[in-house]
Amino acid sequence: MRIVRTALQRFKNQELARKLIWINFILIVIPFGIIAMFAFSSFTKTMEKNVGDYQLQTLKQATLNIDTYMNELNRLSIMPYQYQEILDYLEAPREQGQPLTLEEIDQLNGFVSKVFLNGRVDIMGVSLYGENGASYVVLPESQYVTTYKLDDNADWLKKAQGQFGQPAFITTHEVKSTGGTAYQVFSIARELRSFDTGKTLGYIVIDIDPKLIMQILSQVSLGKRESLYITDKLGNLVIRKTNSEVWSGLGALSGEGVSHLSDQGERLLAAYVTSPVTNWTTVGVVPVDELMKDSVVVRNSILLIGTICIGLALLLSVFLAYRITMPLRKLRRLMRKVERGDLLVSFPVTQWDEVGHLGNAFNMMVSKLSELGYLLYETEIREKDAQIAALQSKINPHFLYNTLGSISMYAEVEGNREIVTMANNLSRLLRYSLSDRKEKVTLREEFEHVKGYMTIQKMRYEDRIHFDMQADEAVLRCKVIPLMIQPIVENAINHGLDKGVGNGCIRLSSRQDGGTLYIVVEDDGIGMTNEQLEEVRRRLRETKDVGGTTGNGLLNVHRRIVLHFGCGYGVALESMPFQGVKVTLSLPVNL
After folding, report:
1. What is d(CA 274, CA 277) in angstroms, rounded to the nearest whole number?
2. Are 449 and 429 in contact (CB under 8 A)?
3. pLDDT, tens digit (0-9, with 9 covering 90-100), for 539-560
4. Rg for the chain, CA atoms, rounded
5. Residue closest to 450 by CA, chosen among 403, 509, 407
6. pLDDT per residue over 385-435, tens digit each?
7. Which of 289, 491, 568, 578 is 20 to 30 A from residue 231's alpha carbon, by CA?
8. Phi/psi at 510 (nearest 5 deg)?
9. What is the DSSP string of 375-417?
10. Among candidate residues 368, 371, 358, 297, the one with its CA nearest the CA of residue 328
11. CA separation for the pair 187, 202 (Å, rounded)
12. What angle do CA 224, 229, 233 make, to 5 degrees?
């Protein structure tokens, strides 16, 4: 996941043109690759199926040719039924070594001659065996022999006996002439029965040279590395094409079909067809790679054409990406000029798409920056003029401080302590209000300022006002806005106590609750009605100035706190008619 996040972050940090190129690359290469793989896979499967079907049809035709040949042999095996004297010979009992009569020799030689001369077959030998000991065997390049005894355990005999008069085809085996020469033959054997009684009379065995079948197989071409052979129903080899390999892994096959096998990692395609005449199965095995040589050409063509198309598409996408993002790069260069202070630039808007609207907004921004720059320059000049005027006006506060100091000195000489106290407190109030000060002061300094202010007010009202101030030592170190409490206390005197009758009390206290500092100013004056209270609260919520022209100190303090610390802080009021007003200032604790 970390690698993926890193890759995504790098992608996000790429230029827009490169992002478009990467996106186009992904949208082109991945779909094309999937389509190409799917098309090639479908083509390969279809081609493999078609090749397998073709291979199967080829084997069917070869099997049909072999069956035609086998049917000719089958007709030869029923020739004894056309010659009663042959059947009589097989039925007659004979002793081993009993010589043949001239008539029997003539009849048997005539029969065998007709078998050899009948049809286009390559017959190597003919054997006749009687149940009662008669025999007449003609081997390749040999004279007839009558001394052969029927072997009850011979494989061909067992096959012939199980066929109930139907031919039995015997796989390729070896026979020897009387001279000792060995020959490879396959045979057809048939059980001969009496038409009258159905009793077994004997057997005929015809030995055939497999050369003709091999010629039929040689006419079949499945590929350069083909294996073509014929097996019996047990999977034993009958005949194979020259240099063909026999695949024992297929086992005994029956019917017809196409199957796959693997040999040392190589995939092979095997087609097989079982003959209804001989029950032999013709098998053709070819490596799939050889069959699919054409698919390799198609694959290479797809890859070549796909590579060319992808290359052209990527070149076009690169061109379009840089062409589309060229206005943005130009806009970026213009913005850098603006960063360096050059405001005499303009983006040429030639089209009204997103880039055109962005360029138009950039031009308007540069124009506004030019205007704001001029206004800022003018404001700085005015501020300098105001600073000069302020320096010049400092003469008046200093004159007032010096004058109040002189009054305090003369009052001290005359022994008038009230005048001394009032002059000194008024001097401190003026210094705190008019002199240069920091944006933040400690709550102790604010309380001292309010204490001096109330000293003057108590002298003015001749002790009609009782002032009580309480604060924990810990909160006195908190930083607050200067001149924040005195306007609230002044409001309490002017609007709460000055309009009442008798003495009044003002209580100033502060506490810390969590991360919030609360400063509370309470009076026991005439209070406010519900309508007046709601009106003041509405002005505190809705008015955005800092007092306007009305000089409302309460609103001034509230807006100053909100501007400094946010809307979560400010001034809150509680009041009831003739029960005074409670003003709570809330601000964050700042040590």
Report:
1. 9
2. yes
3. 888 865 544 433 367 888 898 8
4. 62
5. 509
6. 555 454 444 445 555 555 666 677 767 777 777 777 777 777 777 766 665
7. 289
8. -145, 150
9. HHHHHHHHHHHHHHHHHHHTHHHHHHHHHHHHHHHHHHHHT-H
10. 358
11. 16
12. 150
